[in-house]
């Protein structure tokens, strides 16, 4: 991985001057934008290739069936539209009562975890408004909770692995990042498979469709093409299965969250930490020159011609580098 | 109980309570309307069945055809424009479901596509959001200077206010545009923008589904894509400003604990350690305060702290060499250092040969350590969520 993607390896960049460091965050951001756009283009092309033909043929078959039925029952165009309207509006009711307590709880889960199947969506305007306020507070709370719990899980797993390594008489008993990533990955796959087995049994889906459902749910995409607890009146009648589904979603999201906490979270704070490091350097330079007088060192684009990088200041910078993403940044204050 | 565990437990209980409360409110708001709506639709359905002399089986057959035709009603979904739209809903995790892969190979590709795309998108939005925040901070700073204000530093409150207003205006702009183009009421369009930009994506309202817009109206299609991506950036910037720090709380506490354990294991007398321990809490209170009256006091602490840091860095490098095996192995991987850093030892102005206790720095040689304020904070619930550093 190029050094500018790894926040812990920019000592040489530091010595090259502050303005080059500024560019690093911008370069990184620009490349990410380009990556994402190319990724979208490639994805669109592949989905087009995979789905377009099937879509066309299915549509033709269904439209044929529709005209057959129209002829058979002698519907006029308006008649058909009326029936279509009634059927589409009745669709969410097909799966039973959606807004009793169990269904509302299910809905609340899909809101704050941002899964958002859409199998049930607030029909009243008051419900829509409350849904928005509910999400505004609930989503950050949920994000923080899952990351918090995920970190605890990772720490516990690291401890267990350490003990296991000791018991098995390994020479080096430290738990490496590779170990953790491997265990995390296996847990995710395991969670998905357990869910797939359970839902394929209870919902009558194939194992593959149940696996796809679990994946789409636990990544919080939540298309809604497959939704659990939608067989007639399951929400009201099969309480243990309902409890299992809720638990599965929450625990599964925790496992995925723990894996993300292990692997992805550090990258989310890359730019922020580079900014902090730059600010610290500016501050330590000013300190050396005796210029510290509560002046704001918010010159984010670093157009400060006095900026240099004498080697002895790399300790202060190196200190925070050594602590990785540690936020013991005493220096960052107004 | 350890701070991280208490915090995690408190969060779990809050979430469960939040869910229960939400469920109760949604039930109150929606249940009655659901019942009456269903009754009306059933009545209408039986009317239609009688009118056209349909049996139950016939009607169910009809229902199936109508429901299966539903995605096709909105136009061709999988040509390039529609696939691009779908790809956006996958990697941003919005996931409307207005179109979902029907082939098995489409489903498989969708899963792999999401596996790589979602982290990439998360990192991209946070990266871009941070750049935007930095730029806004710079603009606000310049604006404050131009307006001739006495205090030209940009505070967190300023940033949060600006961020909040950007989010609200993004939602309002989208609401206005979509209510005009899709024929929704302003409230429904606002609700659509909100549900989209928070990536919930119910799919009850979906843009580009009227009159085959995906194929016929390229400008509107482009607008929708740009709106979704830019809106997510604005929301992402606000989250980067406000929420991201909380996602790393536990990890940082663990690091701090590990550091303290490591420092303690170097044989420092207990007295010095307890004097060092409250450093982070006293710094956090000054960092969070953000108050000019404390600026002068913190400036003094700042110099001492920087001094302390450079001392500690020598200590750390030295200890790593000497105590390879005895440092607790619970230190996270991130704290092991590359050998390059060890070479900087020679530049350390505070490097002194270890004394009898193995300590490199002692209060005699480093008066700043003893002068750092002690003031042990009693661990209160509020402290659980205090941040250790400001913007």
Question: Main attributes?
Answer:
heterodimer; A: 334 residues; mainly alpha; Helix Hairpins; 2 domains; 12 helices; disordered C terminus; B: 391 residues; 15 helices; 69% helix; Potassium channel subfamily K member (chain A)
Structural commentary:
Chain A: One of its GO terms (molecular function) is outward rectifier potassium channel activity. The complex is a heterodimer of chains A (334) and B (391). By secondary structure, chain A is an all-alpha fold. Chain A has two domains: 26-93, no CATH class; 97-284, Helix Hairpins, CATH 1.10.287. Chain A has twelve helices and no strands. Residues 302-334 of chain A have low confidence and may be disordered. Residues 276-298, 323-352, 354-361, 366-382 and 387-391 of chain B have low confidence and may be disordered. Chain B has 15 helices and no strands. By secondary structure, chain B is mostly helical. Chain B starts with a helix and ends in a 20-residue tail after the last helix. Chain B is globular. Helix content of chain B is 69%, strand content 0%. Among the domains of chain B are: 1-73, no CATH class; 74-258, Helix Hairpins (Orthogonal Bundle). Chains A and B meet through α2, α3, α4, α5 and α7 of A and α1, α2, α3, α4 and α6 of B.
SSE blueprint and pairings:
The complex is a heterodimer of chains A (334) and B (391).
Chain A: H1 11-15, H2 18-73, H3 77-90, H4 101-112, H5 125-167, H6 177-203, H7 207-218, H8 234-237, H9 239-263, H10 265-268, H11 270-288, H12 314-322
Chain B: H1 3-52, H2 56-73, H3 80-91, H4 104-146, H5 156-182, H6 186-197, H7 213-216, H8 218-242, H9 244-247, H10 249-264, H11 270-276, H12 278-289, H13 292-322, H14 339-342, H15 367-371
